[in-house]
Amino acid sequence: MPHIIVIGAGQAGASLTAKLRNLGYEGDITLIGEETVLPYQRPPLSKGYLLGDITRERLFLRPEEFYQNQNITLRLGSPVTAIDPVAKTVSIGDETLTYDDLALTTGSAPHHLPASIGGELQGVHVVRTLADIDAMQPEFAAGKNVLIVGGGYIGLEAAAVAAKLGLNVTLVEMADRILQRVAAPETSDYFRALHTSHEVNILEGVGLDHLSGDGRVTLATLTNGDTLDVDFVITGVGIKPATALAESTGIMTDNGIKTDAQGRTSVADIWAAGDCASFPYRDTRIRLESVPNAIDQAEVVAENMLGAGKDYIATPWFWSDQYDVKLQIAGLNTGYDTVVTRAGEKPGAQSHWYYRGDTLLAVDAMNDARAYMIGKRLIEAGKSPAPEVIASPETDLKALLK
Fold first, then answer.
1. Residue 127, SS3 per DSSP
2. Is residue 392 left, alpha or beta, with left meaning phi > 0 and alpha meaning psi from -120 to 50?
3. Region 322-340: what's the mean pLDDT?
4. pTM for this predicted structure
5. Euclidean distance between CA atoms 363 and 352, whole angstroms
6. How would you label 69-104 residue by residue, b for 16+ Cβ within 10 Å and e otherwise?
7. What is the DSSP letter of 216?
8. Rounded CA gap, 258 and 105, in Å?
9. Which residues fall within 8 angstroms of residue 371, CB to CB, at 6 or more apart?
10. Which of 210, 231, 294, 320 has its CA 20 to 30 A from that of 311?
11. Separation between Cα atoms, residue 157 and residue 196, nearest integer Å
């Protein structure tokens, strides 16, 4: 009986194994995960789950019975120690499993603060796994002082939860502005104003110098020399693709596990999908950290494992929830030179449209699902309305799709 092994039991791994069965694959499937819990959704961790609005069970992508009924063997709490691509084996401690095809859906890991600046003190947290959130949840008591390091989406989402729960929130961002790596100044301005209106103290162009405390963090010293009394710290300073296992196997990497357009790595019969995978996109190579990409790419890889020969054509989209604002992003803004702002129909709703020359690249839509959906469809169709057309309040966006 042929055997497909999938290493990494997150969104991509769960999607890939389910798709294999959906396509009629009758061989053995083993899904291996380092965490001890069933595959679960990550986006609600820093939002609804941290707030207490979503139960643990609702995070799970499928109930345990699904894997039993689909004859998918789950190996949870089982870190893989080695892959032998010649013998086609996977080692879990002293145990060896043989595969015919192998998929790496190992995801990504958060950057931690170095121990040399207090990163290993108690009360210093990252936002990535269910265990991370469970560890920090008891800290969220009204009136406590929390420092958030990093003004990307993870940091801002954590700030929103903390502010809603009545904590005193300070967020530091070493770059000149929050969201500098991923968004235009206009989007940064929108979210700075939003957080400031909820009494979050945002410090831009200021980094963390070091943390101090006797076993547990109590004080933060910033790069401008200021000090803050803190009860706990959340770091959101980016993630890195989990490539160590691939590299130890001799698989090529390039800002992630390098794949071709169909998901094959440089080693025969080994594939990759999700956050960990770097793949061809138009005239470049990208890696996408998003749920839609994890699902879509994993499902295409499942098809190709069974011989479909199908290229993965990414249609990037992302979202973030902060307070009562839903940000939806379509496309990739890399290389933009112009941003057009358009007011939405509801108070406070607006969208930012990114152009490179005359080409529409991406849209950030804040509480404006209509702008997001139309922008997404325009980008996917390769249509680029003139910037002045988008900017005009007289323009009926929907008419642009005709």
1. coil
2. beta
3. 97
4. 0.95
5. 6
6. eeebebbeebebeebebeebebebeeeebebebbbb
7. B
8. 12
9. 342, 344, 351, 363, 365, 397
10. 320
11. 14
Residue 109 in tokens: 């890991």
Residue 402 has a pLDDT of: 84
CA distance 199 to 3: 55
Tell me what the pLDDT averaged over the chain comes to: 97
Distance separating alpha carbons of residues 8 and 396, to the nearest angstrom? 45
Number of other CB atoms surrounding residue 114 within 10 Å = 10
> What is the domain partition of the chain in residue ranges?
3-109+239-305, 112-235, 324-401
3-class DSSP state of 74: strand
The 8-class DSSP code of residue 122 comes to B
Residue 345 has pLDDT above 90, yes or no: no
HSE-up (13 A, CA, CB side) for residue 245: 30
| DSSP run (H or E) holding 342 | strand 338-343
Structure tokens at 298: 């994993």
For the record, the structure tokens of 33 come out as 């995960």
Q: Does domain 112-235 have CATH number 3.30.200.20?
A: no
CA distance linking residue 375 with residue 361, whole number of Å: 9
**Distance in angstroms (rounded) separating the CA atoms of residues 83 and 4:** 14
| Mean pLDDT to the nearest integer, 229-248 | 97
3-state secondary structure of 331: strand
Tell me what the mean pLDDT of segment 189-193 comes to: 98
Q: Does 3-109+239-305 carry CATH code 3.50.50.60?
A: yes
The CATH code for residues 324-401 is: 3.30.390.30
Indicate the burial class of 132 (C-beta count within 10 angstroms; 0-12, 13-18, 19 or more): middle
* The pair of three-digit structure tokens given for residue 395, joined into one six-digit string: 């323009």
